[in-house]
């Protein structure tokens, strides 16, 4: 049963509340300049509990997890605006459902807006409602502007910071991810938990400050060993620098700390599996598939898609796995929440040879691209998303030259589909494979040039060396 009283032994707070929890939660939030418009102290506690679990990437079973705390917030104060903002906002940023298709989610957004308009709430809370509504319409840039407006006056508002971080990630806005955190760091006091290290480290590594990113992440782990996002950042650094042995050793040594973070564990196992693929063309990714089917979380789903696609390009037969994964991805065919998700769903339908599903996904995206409105992802569909989908279709049909013609002009714009450098590297590999397999001599030369470029960026990468040997064999 959900506890009605939460103390410091249960929650390691990410919000800047006073350590002496004899002070009411309501008063503590107000003292930090983050007033919550509710008369319910219990609703504030539950809001705090949700935020804590969100930032820690971990459902706390003793509290009923995030879902249990959301129910408790609603029971404590059904009209608590920020309770609705965080619950609906979390569902939106999960990208597992579209407000175009899910009337329940769309209704939750409208309900939050109506509650805000009917109450005397703070300007900060109104900006939160505005940002959530903008995000629900796919207007990620404007939503981020609203969250940044909050942080300008309230730099310790962790919900605004984390929501903005996630939205920047979906847009591939690397510098914004980094700078958004850098701007608020001076305002965080020593008594506040430093889960900011993982956020800042991730922005640093995505902007190629690898050594600084690793240093910041390790400082975070020294303070909070179960900071799964800092572990994740170090894994990225090792991946981008092709420090495979170091990455393997690090992930193994920290496994007991991060495997309990149920919302990120599968992704960290994915990173661990990438080291194995790079090193010896093998996989230790069973946890990724098991967790993907169990959780239904979008991050877990796209990781499983990516893992299979990489293995298939590397010559591993994964035919039966595609059929398993199709049962998870097919219900999301019409969502079109992010281009990144769409591309990964297409991998599965192509791998499973589900021509109808592949056609439906592409045609749906083409239709939305005609009148995208304020939806930032749909605005990019025509120039980036659809050509990338078409390139994958051509590759699947053995039309390697056409794959190159579609992908090569986009290689410096692929960042706009979102995700991380490590995740998007899949499409760099696709371009290289297509260039090597093309009958066009110019494409073959391009493939060798791309491998030389890759080797310069990631020296000593076994995967690159394998591809170089393959390119030489094809040339002979």
Automatic annotation (TrEMBL):
Taxonomic placement: Eukaryota, Metazoa, Chordata, Craniata, Vertebrata
Keywords: Repeat, TPR repeat
Protein name, per record: Tetratricopeptide repeat protein 38
Coiled-coil residue windows: none
Domain of life: Eukaryota
InterPro entries: TPR-like_helical_dom_sf (IPR011990), TTC38 (IPR033891)
Similarity field: Belongs to the TTC38 family.
Gene3D superfamilies: Tetratricopeptide repeat domain
